[in-house]
Amino acid sequence: MSTISSTRAGTSRAGRITEADCRLDEFAALLESGTDIAQYPHADRTERDVLFYGGAATAAAADPRARQDLSDELARALLTGPGIVVFEGAFDDRHGLRAATELFTTMITEQRATGSGGGDHFAAPGANDRIWNALRKHAVRDPESFARYYANDVLALVATAWLGPMYQVTSAINTVNPGGTAQSPHRDYHLGFMDPATAQRFPRHAHLLSPVLTLQGAVAQVDMPLESGPTLYLPGSQRYEPGYLAFTLPAFRAYFDEHHVQLPLRAGDAVFFNPALFHAAGSNRSAGIRRMANLLQVSSAFGRAMDAVDRSAILRSVYPQLQAMTAAGASGAVENVIAAAAEGYAFPSNLDRDPPVGGMHGETQAELTRRALATGMPPETFARELAALDERHRP
Description:
3-stranded antiparallel β-sheet; 40% helix; Phytyl_CoA_dOase-like; PhyH; phytanoyl-CoA dioxygenase activity; oxidoreductase; dioxygenase
């Protein structure tokens, strides 16, 4: 704690967030206020500062005017409140919950038989079973089940409240098996999927923007008693501005270990949270519960460029020129051209072909181009590697 606070004074600029801004005393003070249920009239109750919604919210959602008030309340809860809401019984037989769980179980069995699947951004290899791109796989395998499941109005309600219309849903099934150990506490996509050195390169306003581009959700496909290790949360932690740099620091991890909340869930409960909330999947200490959740990541419509650009074609064309510039020692100019021409971000990707094994993501076009130039890769070899990278990202 003293190491963190002692480096703060005079080291940061107003438009930047650095590790020197990470002060545990300020973080702890921010979390002391708790959750006042009087500020959330549609919530049924709070439990350890987490808001639980049920009958009152369902009734409000059915009325257009009341639905807007409820939406505003949910957005406020996610932004400046606890950062997490639970809708009890959000999915049930009307949505084919049991049939979907059986389908996901079958898919995992098939993956194991073929040795496919796996990889996790925040957990040790082998601790769990993953179905990447479960949204597409669900739709292709059982369209009727998919339609029942995603007709759910709770998902639409919370996604629209946080992101507005035209959002994009993705899904991954995560099953933590008995003996599976807890994840490290973290924040989520986007900046949460970067190492601190990379996250620090983004200006302060990007740190504030990142959470409102994504909604994180999790549907409990099975009952999740505490022994099965449901997710650990730190309500209110999404409000801490330097959090994308703080969550890896030992003092903040120790604070999370001491103060997190963990709540049991029933099959069909749905949790939604601000991606900046400090959280981590728990250890599954049960004898036989395979803790299955459908991890929903819902993205803002705004997270894309206006033009559809074939960046691979651009790179194939300009690569010889980049080689010449590299030979001339124009490294700064080369970096500028790569930034304009290449895809510098690892996502979206096909995580079946490009799983996060050994890191947070696979190689990007920009990283491949730098590697090719550094090793003197011939243009034809570069073109083949670029095509292979494109194939790994193909839906």
